[in-house]
Amino acid sequence: ISVGIVEIDGxxxxxLNMNDAAADLIGIDKEHVIGQKKCYETFCRHxxxxxxxxxxxxxxxxxxxxCQITLPTGDKLLVHKTAIKIPTNNGYNIIESIVxxxxxxxxxxxxEKAKVKADLATKSKTILLANVSHDIRNLLTSIxxxxxxxxxxxxxxxxxxxxxxxxxxxxxxxxxxxxxxxERTILETGQxxxxxxxxxxxx
Length: 203
Known about the structure:
Blueprint: E1 3-9, E2 15-18, H1 20-26, H2 39-44, E3 62-70, E4 76-88, E5 91-100, H3 102-151, H4 158-188
Antiparallel strand pairs: 1-2, 1-5, 3-4, 4-5
Helix pairs in contact: 3-4
């Protein structure tokens, strides 16, 4: 991470020095700023020292905040600033570090988009599972009814009843699996409801 460093006169707010990272971050020629411009003219693009966030140095030693600085193009740039008050023979200077947070904003926006996309995919999957489980349950119910009617016939071979038992047991297992799928869908969609029932504690 590139960190811009700026040294400011505490009384006059004149920019005394800055590194190349600070100049590049703000988009200015530091030779035209050092010793000539006020910090609030350079970073905040206004001429009112009373609007400067550094005025509270009368009561605090260090200021840490996130704020927007105005670039020469007029665009706003979100930065993290840490300013430290350094005593000098003539009063004090301010050493201010500036870190660009625009990359963090981009990452947060990308994460939000990914979250929305994931939520949509989960919702689509849940709806699909609900529809599929409903259709399969109806189909299994129909097959189960037919198998039970065939099983009620008398005079058939042992192999005949054994095969029907296999079919009925398979239908039962599939029905149980679909029921679990349906319950999971209800939980994911927030449709589940808490049912309260009285119980006896004497036992």
